[in-house]
Specification:
The protein has helices spanning 2-17, 31-34, 112-123, 133-145; strands at residues 37-44, 50-56, 61-66, 72-79, 85-93, 96-100. With 148 residues, it is α+β, with helices and mostly antiparallel strands. It has two domains: 29-104, no CATH class; 106-147, no CATH class. A six-stranded antiparallel sheet has the order 1-2-3-4-5-6, with no helix packed on it.
C-alpha cells in the first residue's frame, strides 16, 4: 500500500512539473519562434556609462543610453498582434520610468489651483534641508506641459 502511495505521489509531482501549454500562443513555427538577431551592439564604460541596441527579424528593436549608469533614455518598438507597429520612447531617472507613445494614455491637464499651489510653495520653499527644490521645479515644468 505504501509503495502505491509513493508511486501515486511521484506521478502527481511529475504531472504538475511538466511544461504547461500556453493557451492562445503558438510556440513552434511562428515568426516569434524563428526570430534571429539582425543587429546588436553594446558598449560599457568603466564610469558606468553604457549604450546598447538590437534588432530582430520579427520586428522588435530597442536602444538605450546612459551617461552615468543610473539615468537613461531609450526606445523600443514591436509589431503587436493587431499588426500595428508600437513605439515607446522613455526616460528613466530619479523621477522614475517615463514612457511616451502614441498608443499610451495622456495625462489630463493639471487643474489651475494645483499649479498655483505648487508655484506658491516654489516662491516660499520650506526650510527643511531635505526639501528638493529641483524636484519641485521638475514637477511644475511637467505639469505646465500638460496645459498644452
Amino acid at each position: 500500500m505504501f509503495s502505491k502511495l509513493i508511486t501515486l505521489a511521484a506521478l502527481v509531482a511529475c504531472t504538475l512539473a511538466a511544461p504547461q501549454k500556453r493557451l492562445g500562443v503558438p510556440l513552434v513555427g511562428t515568426a516569434e519562434s524563428q526570430a534571429v538577431i539582425l543587429a546588436q551592439e553594446h558598449n560599457h564604460d568603466p564610469s558606468g556609462a553604457y549604450n546598447y541596441r538590437y534588432e530582430t527579424s520579427n520586428g522588435i528593436s530597442a536602444q538605450q543610453t546612459s551617461y552615468d549608469g543610473a539615468n537613461s533614455v531609450g526606445e523600443y518598438s514591436y509589431t503587436g498582434p493587431d499588426g500595428v507597429l508600437y513605439r515607446v520612447a522613455y526616460n528613466a531617472d530619479t523621477y522614475g520610468f517615463q514612457p511616451q507613445g502614441a498608443h499610451l494614455p495622456v495625462e489630463p491637464p493639471v487643474p489651475d489651483h494645483v499649479l498655483k499651489g505648487l508655484e506658491q510653495i516654489r516662491a516660499n520653499p520650506p526650510r527643511d534641508p531635505e526639501f528638493n527644490l529641483a524636484a519641485l521645479d521638475a514637477q511644475i515644468a511637467r505639469l505646465r506641459a500638460t496645459l498644452g
